[in-house]
Amino acid sequence: MGKGRESKPHIGIFGRRNNGKSSLINALAQQEIAIVSDVPGTTTDPVRKSMEIPGIGPAILVDTAGIDDTGELGAKRVNKSLATLKTVDLAVLVITNNHFDDFEIKLVDAFRKQDVPFIVIHNKSDVIPPAGQFIQFVENEFGVKLLPFCALDPQNLEEVIAALRQAMPETAYRSRSLLGDLLSYGDLVVLITPIDNEAPEGRLILPQVQAIRDIIDNDCIAVVVKEKEVDALMKTLRPRPSLVVTDSQVFLRADASVPRDIPLTSFSIMLARHKGDFENYLRGTPKIAELKDDDRVLLLESCTHHVACDDIGRVKIPRWMSNYTGKKLHYDVVAGLGELPRPITDYALVVQCGGCMITRKQIKSRLQLAVENGVPVTNYGMAIAWMHGIYHRAVAPFTMMEQTKEDYL
Q: E strands, 108-248, where?
């Protein structure tokens, strides 16, 4: 399965072989970006194409293999196609020839199981148009509008784009502010950003850049400082910060340096609340204290990167967790969105990274199996805060905000 390194909305194109899925992608992009052939099964593994969709913006179209592929290799291709549902925000089911049988019903069931909205396009309608009775059957039985279309002569392309726009969950392309509901006009926010071996040469990491942009977008002031300068800064900085956001690795130092009356959180917790499974993280994080000897912990890195000698996920978190619990624990690390090395029920805890490079849907889908099986889940930053004894302070800016909303409502 692909690495899912794009945080843009993902649209999956599904259907039988030779139904014109790749032609549909070319029609939407208005250029030949997918290979088209009359030979069934031309598309094998899922292929991702980036394009701009009016009203949605930049999006990733995922061209999948035919759901009716045959043989042992074909079955593997079908499974890969179905696996992409964990990463897509919207599905397009491409049909032809008034066919809506077991293959299509299987896809619809898979869409619904993964909570993926979908539309149905009847392609090649210039050759065999959809019958009125057939349209009525699909729309009544599955509750979606069926759109006649011809990818080679896309005269109603605007109608298809409008249907995509209408069906796409707004949360997939209009993200809420990272920190905006914690801030007021002109507030000052301090960002503590260590520069160590893991910091990229000549630039900041993505969550830090995202936080700076979000602060500016909310008409506030961002002050960026290394952890060594925080003490001196706090003595002279005026006005006092309304919020401090720190890298998880220097939580303890930040906790000691930032006065208790100033809210403190981390970039990782900021991301966990913004697009992670925050409610389940809140429930799962305290389970760290209940780990026992020989428990197995799964660490999920949602992107691949060069592994440093003091890597946060592979080295530091396992070291901190073993020291905190005093137990003999076993750790598995999975990078990207690849398959797990063992059944999810073998794990006593799942620790998800911040997920700065992937979508909210991809994170929640990644954790869905654990949640469904009662395996506690947490996040890098929240786990680190718990193990360093500052968890309640680190999550307080967000949990207090949610409580205030509930009290108001």
A: 118-122, 146-148, 188-192, 221-225, 243-246
**3-state SS, residue 148:** strand
Structure tokens at 167: 């069906």
| Contact between 92 and 164 (Cβ < 8 Å) | yes
For 189, the 3-state DSSP assignment is: strand
The CA-atom distances, in angstroms, between 330 and each of 19, 31, 293 are 47, 50, 9
Tens digit of each residue's pLDDT, the chain (409 residues): 333 334 678 899 999 999 999 889 888 877 554 444 444 444 445 678 887 877 777 888 999 989 988 888 888 888 888 888 888 889 999 999 999 999 999 999 999 988 899 999 999 999 999 999 999 999 999 989 899 999 888 889 999 999 998 888 766 655 678 899 899 999 999 999 988 766 667 788 888 999 999 999 999 999 999 999 999 999 999 999 999 999 888 888 999 999 999 999 999 889 888 877 899 999 999 999 999 999 999 999 876 554 444 578 889 999 999 999 999 999 999 987 678 999 999 999 999 987 777 777 788 888 989 999 999 999 998 999 999 988 999 999 998 755 544 443 3
Q: What is the pTM of this model?
A: 0.62
Q: Which domains are assigned to the chain?
A: 10-172 (3.40.50.300), 180-270 (3.40.50.11420), 277-387 (3.40.50.11410)
